Model the fold of this input.
Amino acid sequence: MAVDYATLKKGGWMRQKQKNKFALRVHVVGGTLTAEQLLGIQKVADKYGHGYVHLTARQSLEIPWMDAADIENIKKDLAEYGVTPSVCGPRVRTTTACQGSATCPSACIDTQDLAKKIDKRYFARELPGKFKFGVTGCQNNCLKTEENDIGIKGAERVEWLSDKCIACGVCVKACRENAIELKDGKISIDMDKCSYCGRCAKACPVDAYEEHPGFIMSWGGLFGNHIHRGNQIVPFFEGEDTLFKLCDATVDFFDKNAQPGDRLQFAIDRYGQDKFDEMIKKIYDEDINKEEVSDIKVDETVDITDVVCPVTFVKTKVALEELDDGQILSVHMNDGEPVQNVPRSVKEEGHQILKLIDNEDGTYDLIVKKVGE
Done:
């Protein structure tokens, strides 16, 4: 039987040493199969193969030693159990994922749901080279996301709820980054140290933290003939809309700039890491800044465009002192020294910066939540 191997690779078939013998890679999203699907795979392995399957390094199953003449019958038999072939070659591969928040108490996000969305959006897309997504639920990083072309790590931003806190100090002990301090019965979080792992909230016995799930992404991971740890280009963010805009832009970039057989990092190296980072940051900044400020209830606004440093911060500080704990201040300021100095000074005073919005007219709006002493 004449076999077009290039076509078979699109259907997840891999050549083996013996002539006209192939292994079929099964499409498994996030490493999850039902018991019924496993039964179908077992029946096909017994009927057409050598009675065993191979577990791949990327959470898939391969059924080896099948005859090319049986391909259509094999696909038909597997379909009865809801099993479909995967893909090989230069295209988007199956998304890998840990079990996520539906099962794991450490996870910050539902990785299985996200893996299905990614798979539906990108799986099998034709590209110049193979492209891999990996999703993990938390900083434990069981999926080793930085080994993937795009790695997605679940994370979360936390807010301390003073009215629920009993000052037990469990969260301080749980924090591996020494980012939390308990002093005089009050919690303070150093966001420069925070890794967004959410361990503090999960350890708290009285639910004195509000959790806001989000993502940390990495780009350009490799773990084969060449090894490269994926780069984190933008900080933690919340919202799947932003996530998919960044993923769309990256896959499109790879499609337009990669050469046959490339991986993402090879294309980035030729294009220029700085230029690629700038592209990703621009998409991120534009999307984050497009979020409606109306989503945040601003309690007071101060305009410091008419004053010079250091009076800019003095005016901001006075405005904050007039607010109650937890209230929101919007500070309208000029580019240059004000935007370089005022956010830093506000943060050093212990207040929480929610957003810094570039109005693209030479001014910025700083959205600050007052944190009491």
Q: What stands out?
A: Residues 240-257 form the longest helix (18 residues). The chain has three domains: 5-79, 96-290, 296-369.
